[in-house]
Amino acid sequence: MTTWTPAGRKRPAGGPARRFAAPAVLALCGLSSACGSAWAQGDAEAGEAVFIAANCQSCHTDYANDGALLAGGRALKTPFGTFYSPNITPDPKTGIGNWSDEDFRRALIHGRAPDGARYYPVFPYTSYSGMTDQDVADLKAYIFSLPPVEKANRPHDLKWPFSWRWVMAPWQWLFFHPERFAPDPERDDLVNRGAYLVDTLGHCGECHTPRNRFGVLKDDMHLAGQEEGPEGGIVPNITPDPETGIGNWSDNDITWLLITGFLPDGDNVQGGMGEVVEHSTSRLTDTDRQAIAAYLNSLPPIVHQVGPPRETGDTDTGGGGDEFDY
Ligand code: HEC
Ligand code: HEC
């Protein structure tokens, strides 16, 4: 139990000294916001695994126009207008090459830009805010090991008043209270790892949990699906209710979907979920996929019919389209 880390991996050599020092520095961290970078030395190799589980590349790469990895420009359509993801390659001019460790940490954990501006939650920092400092540091080391690409950011095209970035200040103040992920001692290690993968890194709830009218995820409907997903279509209930969710799926059905994109009925997932499988879940370790299945099956089942009930043999689950509208 004591060896569990949210990242679920062995620390590379050189770790023990750092690990030893960490608790003391961590205690000081509570008193100073300018910390985190002081002790968390990033490891690029470990960071690649975080990058995959968090699927940063889907939104930050403009696949439709053959865009370079992480160079941004991908259109994400929402009811508030169209967002264009920024360049997060280590290019110093147009990307984030000049960012300090603390700038990077603050963006992911607090949703704040280096100049203090607030990010729109279409960047799912609302989920990433649970990340451990070590994972954030590793992730930065990995992203900074990738090739810099010079490509200027395209401004978002948003409807008023959302075009005023400052409206995000009251929104964050009211609705965003960053909480670091903490393993639940009542659950076993695999389930805790699954919770970290699903709720923090994989940000599954950003699509699978319905929102209230302020765009805030409804806690009591965690992963219960929604009719109006990011792509305007149905996002299924993935709680273990047998009728309206995935309660009839075995752990193997879930891991098979996460590897291949195939549903138990032989159909395959499309659109946003297709990308999640392609760039993220198919590239996880087997243990991580089992952890996701174990966590999903441990959740309280929520009865919530999203879209028409699935008939046996019915191959249309309502997702679809190549365009990724967020
Ligand atoms: C669902 C789509 C989505 C995902 C997934 C996503 N991002 Fe973003 N990200 C965005 C958007 C859109 C913005 C712009 C937000 C704004 O302008 O307020 C953004 C902004 C950022 C910024 C600020 C860049 C700047 O120039 O100010 C950083 C850094 C960043 N993302 C890193 C990441 C990392 C690292 C990951 C993976 C852990 C990630 N993003 C995953 C959509 C996404
Ligand atoms: C970008 C939005 C998005 C994200 C993020 C996302 N999903 Fe999905 N998911 C969907 C959509 C849409 C579908 C339906 C796809 C289809 O049927 O073509 C789906 C389908 C599924 C299904 C099949 C359920 C069924 O009854 O058909 C499972 C299981 C699932 N997702 C699990 C996950 C897990 C686990 C994560 C996080 C690692 C995740 N999803 C992240 C959008 C998303």
Brief summary of the model shown:
The chain is mainly alpha-helical.
What would you say this structure looks like, in words?
The protein has two domains: about 15-75 and about 85-155; about 190-300. Helix content is about 35%, strand content about 5%. The chain has helices at about 15-30, 45-55, 55-60, 100-110, 125-130, 135-145, 170-175, 190-200, 205-210, 250-260, 270-280, 285-300, and strands spanning about 75-80, 80-85, 155-160. Strands 1-2-3 form a three-stranded antiparallel beta sheet, with no helix packed on it. Helix 2 crosses helix 6 and helix 10 (about 250-260) packs across helix 12. The longest helix is centred in the first third of the chain and has 15 residues, at about 15-30. About 35% of the residues are buried. Residues about 1-40 and about 315-325 have low confidence and may be disordered. The structure holds heme C (HEC) (2 copies). One heme C (HEC) binds next to helix 3. One heme C (HEC) binds near residues 198, 203, 208 and 257.
